[in-house]
Every structure is written in C-alpha cells, then in structure tokens.
Amino acid sequence: MNAVLLTLPVANEQHVAEARSYGRQLAAILGFGVQDQTRVATAVSELVRNALVYAGRGTIEYGTDLEAQQLTVQVSDQGPGIASPTDVLSGHYVSTTGMGRGLSGTRRLMDHLELDTGPAGTRVLIAKNLPAPLETSDLPRIRAALLQGHRVTPVQELQRQNKELLQTLGDLARREQQLATLNRELEDTNRGVVALYSELEDKAAQLREASREKSLFLSYVSHEFRTPLHSMLGLSRLLLSHADGALSAAQEQQLTLMRSSAEELLGMVNDLLDMTKAEAGGRDLKLEPLELTQILATLRALFQPLITDAGPRLIIEEPQRPMVLYSDASKLHQILRNFISNALKFTPAGEVVVSTRLTDGDHWIEFSVQDSGPGISVEDQSLLFREYSQLRGGGKKGSGLGLALSHRLATLLGGRVGVESAPGAGARFWTVLPLRTSAPVMGHFPGGGDST
C-alpha cells in the first residue's frame, strides 16, 4: 500500500531545487544514511528535470509503501512519452541533447524503478528499501516533519550539491588510498607465495632425489643379499640330504634352523626388492588380456609342490565360467602369491581356499583367499596393509611388506584389497579389480567390504 506524504508541482527550476531538497529531507527522516540521502536526492532531481525539459511540467509525489517497506517517489507528466523506453533504461539511448542516460543512472541509484510511458504522458516510480521497519502510526509524524522542512532556492541547492560532491570526492580519495594500500599488501603476499612455491618445489625435488637414492640403495642391498642367501640354502639342502655323510641329530637340527632362517630372510629380501621396484617404476602397467583359468593354473602349479601332509590343504576352485580380464599379469600374480603365502604360513592345519566371483553387474572380479587359521583381531586388521607392520602374538613373523605391496599394486591396477576375519574364525583376504579396462579406474570400488 502506497501512502502519499507530499505532492508538489514541477513547473520551473525553483521546483527542481525544492524537489531535490524534499527528497533528501524525507530520506533523512526515514533514517537513511548520508550517502543514501544523496542517492535519493540525485535520483529525484534527475526525474524532475526530465519532466521539466521534455514535458514542460509535471507532478511529484513522495510516499512510502508499507507492504514492501520502501520509500517511494513518483514523477508524472503529460508529455509526448518516451519513444524507446527499453533503450533508455539500458543506457544505450543517446538523446538529441547528448544525454539520455538519466533513467539508467537513476535505476542504479535506487532499489526499484517502474516506467509507464505513452503518447498521453510518462509516469516513473522509484523506490528504496527502508533501513528500519515502518508502521502506519508513524505516517503522521513523518508527514509533519516533511511539511516543516524549509524551501530552498536553486543557488542554495547548488551549494548543497557542491558540498555533497566534495564529500564524495573525499570519500573516493580515502577509498583509493585504501585500495592502493591493499594492492601493496597483495603484491607483498604474492611475492611471499611465489617464494613459498619455489621453496616447496626445491623441497619436493630433494625428496624425489632422496627417494630415488633410497630405492637404489635398497635395490642394491637386496640384490647383494640374495646371492649369499641362495648359497646358504643350497649348502644346507646338500648337507641335509646326507650326500656328504650322516649327520648327528644336533647337527641336523642346527642345519634345519639355519635353512629356515635363510628362507625367512630371503623372503624378506624379496619383499623389500619388490616394494622398491613398485616405488621406483610401479606405475608402468602392462595391461593385456588374461584368461582366468590360466591364472589359477599358474598359482596351482606354483604352490602345489610346497603343500605337505602336515600342513593345510590348498584348494583352488575353478571359475563358474571361462572369462578374460585385462590387467597386468605380474602384478596380479604378486598380489595373489602374497595372499596365498600368508594363508599357508599362518594356517597350521585345515585348508586354504582360493575362489573368484564377478561383482557389480559383471564389471568387476573379486579374488578371495579364505583360510581356516586362528583369525585376526580387529586391532591387528587395521595394521595389516601398512608397511613393516607385524601381527601381535603367534610364532611366525614376516617382513611386514607383502600385504602393503599387495595394497599398492591393487591400487595401481584400479582396484583395492581388504580382509574379513575374527579370532578363531579364520581370515579372508580379497582384492577387487576391474574386469575390463584400458587404464586404472579410480574412485568406485564395489564389493568385498572395507579395505584397511
């Protein structure tokens, strides 16, 4: 609801000055700040002058819209109307006087502008949101205060405009100074950021070089260890075969212990070498079509000679149907060898079952190694895939690298690994890999539970 507070005629320059003055006074009464008072006064002055120049005369109404909570000013005339209102409001129109940008400028000064024009005349309504709520009971007080305002001459209004202009220029100068200070601070910050990036690049280069040196050292040491370890294993086997004569029970026990220690150390060296290779060049994948039956047959041929009557049985189940997956054969075999070796090592009796199944709409394949061993506690499961981690309790120890390497290789192949176990219920290690892919697939890993 628009409540009119004051209506004035527009017929000469004196009326233009008065209209501007009343606009400023009303804005002040309603609680607007100095800058908003200037905006309202400038917008009113522009509209009233347009009515005077283009129509010869007009009427201005000051009011408030209590529903929208806005100050309103309406200027109407009976002139010929505006030929291109859209162009005028957009600021593209240039009048014969060289101006034509008053309405577009007024639109920017106010929160709302409504234009109604035609051959019978033009009506322009502008509005600005009130700084504080206004009630109907406040209207008499506001109208009385506005009517008590003094009339001004054009010279007085021009003096007031000059004062406002000087104040605005002062504010602009202060803001320009603040902007210059802020720009200097940003330049200093940018220089600091550039220096920090340079330092980080140097540190990254040093870390890469240190990692390369570490990988080279571990690779060299691992290779150097393997030769004497193989010699120790060969000599111990030769002596235990009694080829050079009989051994006493104590000697045979000592040689068996030496061979077992050498085998354990060789396994640790091999794991360390594999981890070093993965760190140095593990991202060089050789993806090729692999027949699932051939993969399982290779594992069967590799582990069957190691199975003894005293240990667990190894059961490698045939797939439900022939299938081909695209992956890196050496890395896939490494993952499965680590799983099966661990299962055989920590399962004193019972069985180790290797199985496969398709998941997620036959787009992924899961390899599973289930044992009937003592099981793994929840606390130990969280450490399994970390480098150099060891299970608490139990007599057998590994290098702590095999499962960490499996985790890294599965990630390179676009999949993941995980474990499901409970004390006394055995353990199931699994890896889920994409069945067909031309590059590692990251982000979506179906099936198998949560990896550690």
Automatic annotation (TrEMBL):
<dbReference type="InterPro" id="IPR004358">
    <property type="entry name" value="Sig_transdc_His_kin-like_C"/>
</dbReference>
<dbReference type="InterPro" id="IPR003661">
    <property type="entry name" value="HisK_dim/P_dom"/>
</dbReference>
<dbReference type="InterPro" id="IPR036890">
    <property type="entry name" value="HATPase_C_sf"/>
</dbReference>
<dbReference type="Pfam" id="PF13581">
    <property type="entry name" value="HATPase_c_2"/>
</dbReference>
<protein>
    <recommendedName>
        <fullName>histidine kinase</fullName>
        <ecNumber>2.7.13.3</ecNumber>
    </recommendedName>
</protein>
<dbReference type="InterPro" id="IPR050736">
    <property type="entry name" value="Sensor_HK_Regulatory"/>
</dbReference>
<dbReference type="InterPro" id="IPR003594">
    <property type="entry name" value="HATPase_dom"/>
</dbReference>
<dbReference type="GO" id="GO:0000155">
    <property type="term" value="F:phosphorelay sensor kinase activity"/>
</dbReference>
<feature type="domain" description="Histidine kinase">
    <location>
        <begin position="220"/>
        <end position="437"/>
    </location>
</feature>
<dbReference type="InterPro" id="IPR036097">
    <property type="entry name" value="HisK_dim/P_sf"/>
</dbReference>
<keyword id="KW-0902">Two-component regulatory system</keyword>
<dbReference type="Pfam" id="PF00512">
    <property type="entry name" value="HisKA"/>
</dbReference>
<keyword id="KW-0418">Kinase</keyword>
<feature type="coiled-coil region">
    <location>
        <begin position="155"/>
        <end position="213"/>
    </location>
</feature>
<keyword id="KW-0808">Transferase</keyword>
<dbReference type="InterPro" id="IPR005467">
    <property type="entry name" value="His_kinase_dom"/>
</dbReference>
<dbReference type="Pfam" id="PF02518">
    <property type="entry name" value="HATPase_c"/>
</dbReference>
<keyword id="KW-0175">Coiled coil</keyword>
<keyword id="KW-0597">Phosphoprotein</keyword>
